[in-house]
Amino acid sequence: xxxxxxxxxxxxGDELHGLSDGEVLERVALLVAxxxxxxxxxxxxxxxxxxxxxxxxxxxxxxxxWLIEHVRFAPAEASRVVRSGRALEHFPAMAAGFADGxxxxxxxxxxxxxxxxxxxxxxxxxxxxxAPFDEAWTAVAVESPHDVLKTAVQAFEAALDPDGVEPDPTxxxxxxxxxxxxxxxxxxxxxxAVGGEKVQAAIESIVxxxxxxxxxRTRGQQNADALVQLCDNQLAAGTxxxxxxxxxxxxxxxxxxxxxxxxTTGPGAAATGxxxxxxAARARWLAxxxxxxxxxxxxxxxxxxxxxTHRVVPAHIRRAVEQRDGHCVFTGCTAPTHWGDVHxxxxxxxxxxxxxxxxxxxxxxxxxxxxxxxxxxxxPGGRWRTWRPDGTxxxxxxxxxxxxxxx
Length: 407
Known about the structure:
alpha+beta, three-stranded antiparallel beta sheet, 15 helices, 46% helix, HNH_nuc, nuclease, nucleic acid binding, hydrolase, HNH
């Protein structure tokens, strides 16, 4: 181990600026192979530790827990290493390629995620020899792009049951959501072909339904906004199952003074129902078209009084706003009414009345922008106008002698 550390120290001390492009690329390829070999040895060692229950020495019941607690692995990474170690016992050719540095840890996991203990047992029951699969998959892993290996491994399920009932594709569906310290979330999902098609169709319908001029979002941002809008629509529809005696909704808790003080964004002043911290500015945006409940707290932190829940925008006013505006009124946007929030031009926190004349329909994206510097206004002729934070107005292309002119 000391020799290995010495080699790594020497590599870290190399001067890279003097290398040619070819030498740099050769070095990258070599380091990838070395990294694969190190990952293979880690996987082999973790499997050995799991078999002998070495984690019990530190009071833990599994190597997955040990990797998470003692060497700070992410849970998903710990699961991958343990899963790969178990699978490689049945695939010696793949294990050899991994140890030689020609197969990557992710390629091994493609096999491990598909061929678990259950699949191995079914193969034994049916007299299916795993060796040909092992050799074929290893050759593909060494010679072909990553996605080709995925396709090759998927064929294993057909070999297990070529004539029987098709396995339930929903059994492989997974959705994981991880929350970060700033309240943002990262998610990953795995879906079967039909489930994935449904999700893509729903998201694509929202992406394509509204394509305002000047939209500079990436495709990834458009998909993410569409996913949020999809959930927003469903929450607003009120048809979701009841959650703990109430309809599911977004909950935000904030001190009344922080909510009313528009002179500051108030970072971290509000808390959501799932524990995220958001700014007071974001809470004011949510309160623009929501339901507000007043709770008076005592010095000991216990509630003294709970006021009656107040719906900020009643249904009859929303219907009138939708009928008048027809779509999001932010210049250049045509998002439909059922995507929209009813925005108070003068916030109700500062005396603005909840009325048709003090309301405007804005989609989620542009409602956020209006609460962060943009401004909308309805002129005497009934036309909505939009101003940027620097005071300049957003104007669409106007025809001039038959030719378009951007103003």
